[in-house]
Specification:
Blueprint (H helix, E strand, L loop, with lengths): L1 H25 L11 E5 L12 E6 L13 E7 L13 H10 L3 E6 L10 H15 L1 H4 L1 E11 L1 H23 L16 E7 L9 H7 L9 H11 L18 H7 L3 E7 L5 H13 L3 E7 L16 H18 L11
Parallel strand pairs: 3-4, 3-5, 5-6, 6-7, 7-8
Antiparallel strand pairs: 1-2, 2-4
Helix pairs in contact: 2-10, 3-5, 5-8
Length: about 350
């Protein structure tokens, strides 16, 4: 087992290094990705000792953030990057942050959660939840309103937009019955974030279905993520088969009752037609609609997984179309008018 984990770590390090080249190319087209104005770091309560890791939060803010009135707070949009829980960084979604800040009067926070294989399940979902609690505990200092919080994410990060609310609900249940929080002292009855909605791009939702099954059932199997990537991702984050059916990693396996209680009413899903995750995304969207959630599910035609992250010197025009549409839906969730900030590139 130790040798296998070492091998996975070497593979992950190799792809992370190559990924920097892809990111440079991805960042080349205009509009350029925004860079964060400031960052904060905290140590999760689940960290076992020195060197076990930390979580960075990267804050993207509008020009009017620095001019806010005393006591004024902005809604907060919390973002989780993709990469199979193994690759990627919180800076990967800088272009998405740029679009959001142009159109939505909010603070955008991207979470640098710990990655597998060094930090397998449930590290990512626990880090994500603790990020929400950290923001809620420090909302006055950051000028944000944790009662107006929206989660967004891509791929593995899209998974986290659903698994984190489920983890939050389970933690609150434990707190109410035992008086203690399973994730440490950060959760109290006084700092519970209120989730206004979810915007999830091409999420993985059910790990109980094998990748081979998903690939075979897809419209264009040759356009799906390569097997060497999915094998690396799944072996790194989920070394124990019994975890595959946990609803903290497979939210589609949560009961209707849990989904109804844990998830906010407003759900936005963007799925890709050539993605192996299309079928489970459509099924999940339909199920949430039947539960009474307000679901806006869009299938992006003739596009593969991570269509918006492909290294290219010219931006895919669909990126701007769907990012701007998502911003309209963000404003609708917050019940606010578009707050265009033309100072954002």
């Amino acid at each position: 087992m130790a040798e296998r984990r070492t091998g996975l770590s070497i593979q992950a390090a190799w792809w992370r290094a190559l990924g920097k080249i892809g990111t440079w190319i991805h960042d080349f087209p205009v509009p350029k990705p925004k860079v964060p104005q400031f960052s904060r770091r905290f140590t999760p309560s689940t960290v076992k000792g020195d060197g076990d890791g930390f979580v960075d939060l990267h804050f993207y803010v509008r020009e009017d953030y620095s001019r806010r009135m005393e006591g004024e707070r902005f809604p907060v949009i919390v973002n989780f990057h993709g990469g199979g829980f193994t690759l990627g960084t919180a800076l990967d979604d800088g272009r998405w942050a740029s679009f959001v800040l142009q159109e939505v009067r909010a603070v955008f926070v991207s979470v640098e959660y710990r990655l597998a294989p060094q930090h397998p399940f449930p590290a990512a979902v626990e880090d994500g939840l603790e990020a929400l609690l950290y923001l809620a505990n420090n909302q006055e200092g950051f000028g944000i309103d944790a009662s107006q919080m929206i989660l967004c994410g891509f791929s593995a990060g899209g998974n986290m937009t659903f698994s984190i609310p489920l983890k939050l609900h389970a933690s609150l249940e434990a707190l109410s019955t035992t008086g203690t929080s399973p994730i440490g002292p950060n959760l109290t009855p006084h700092n519970i974030p209120r989730l206004m909605g979810i915007v999830s791009f091409y999420p993985i939702l059910d790990y109980s279905i094998s990748r081979d099954e998903k690939r075979a059932a897809s419209i264009r199997p040759e356009k799906t993520l390569p097997k060497f990537f999915t094998d690396l991702f799944d072996a790194s984050y989920l070394p124990n088969d019994e975890d595959l059916r946990s609803h903290f990693v497979s939210p589609a396996l949560a009961s209707d009752e849990l989904l109804n209680k844990a998830l906010p009413d407003e759900i936005v899903l963007y799925l890709c037609e050539w993605d192996m995750l299309l079928a489970e995304g459509k099924s999940f969207a339909q199920r949430l609609k039947q539960l009474g959630k307000r679901v806006n599910c869009t299938i992006i035609e003739e596009e593969k997984h991570a269509f918006d992250k492909m290294p290219a010197f010219v931006l895919n025009p669909k990126v701007e179309i769907y990012y701007r549409e998502a911003c309209i839906l963000l404003n609708r969730m917050l019940n606010t008018e578009p707050g265009r900030d033309d100072s954002v590139d």
